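Supplementary notes for students who missed Thursday's class. We covered one full example, reproduced here. Read the sequence, then the structure, then the short commentary at the end.
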Amino acid sequence: MTEQANNGAAQGEQNPQFSLQRIYVRDLSFEAPKSPEIFRQEWAPSVAMDLNTRQKALDGDFFEVVLTLSVTVKTGEETAFIAEVQQAGIFLIKGLDPASMSHTLGAFCPNILFPYARETLDSLVVRGSFPALMLAPVNFDALYAQELQRMQQAQAGEVATAH
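Structure (token representation):
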């Protein structure tokens, strides 16, 4: 009985834990280089979006994940505005194997941060007197899988050239 209790305690230490500690804006910028002239032109926007994630280990089992969304909107050849947000979160994550930890930091956490970043960008753009962007959801799991595949192919290419 004592042996079972000890095993249970040891296993309890290995139970995965995930907890969101804080969500915050790390950096925010907005530029409308052709204002006010751009407001007098016909509104025919083209939207280009770049996104990036990065993570950093903090003290203990805490991690900062930063999702950067950069949006450039043009009408014709003119840049209407450029908006960027770095939406960040602090997460407590422990008890995960390396593959699960990588997926959690690379896909799961950005999925949590994206709606906050999207809302921040929409609010910023509206304050600049432009229509809200209403960005479509992003499948971070698919992006993560593509990045893993790209890295595996790059490693296979390096191994092939080394022989």
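Commentary. Residues 16-152 form a domain with the Bacterial Protein-export protein SecB fold (CATH 3.10.420.10). Residues 5-12 have pLDDT under 50 and may be disordered. If anything here is unclear, bring it to office hours.
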